[in-house]
Amino acid sequence: MKxxxxxxxxxxxxxxxxxxPDGSPIDSSSIRFTKTITVSQVxxxxxxxxxxxxSGEVFEGExxxxxxxxxxxLFIVACRYAPRSIxxxxxxxxxSSADWIAKPLL
Length: 106
Description:
This protein is mostly beta strands. The protein has one domain (3-104). The chain has one helix at residues 88-96; strands spanning 3-10, 31-39, 48-52, 58-69, 74-81, 101-104. It has a six-stranded mixed sheet, with no helix packed on it. Strand 4 (58-69) and strand 5 (74-81) form a beta hairpin. The protein is globular and about 45 Å long. The N and C termini lie far apart (34 Å).
């Protein structure tokens, strides 16, 4: 049975070489990227999902937890970018993607 879930993605901090001589880091710890996808079953913690960016890049997200959201009648899937670091071009594509929404944590 196919269903929509919302991915709530945490990404690591990339380095921006052009930012300064020391490569000042971007602080992405207070931002989550969200996107609604269709899955065949509710993902389980520890599972890896193949996620994509509208520009064509594909990456894996590791499921950390899954919660039901009553008001929206939707599962929220908390994920993290599975590779240990995010390449600058993936981070740039993610932040400018039409299908991912950057949401600051309050």
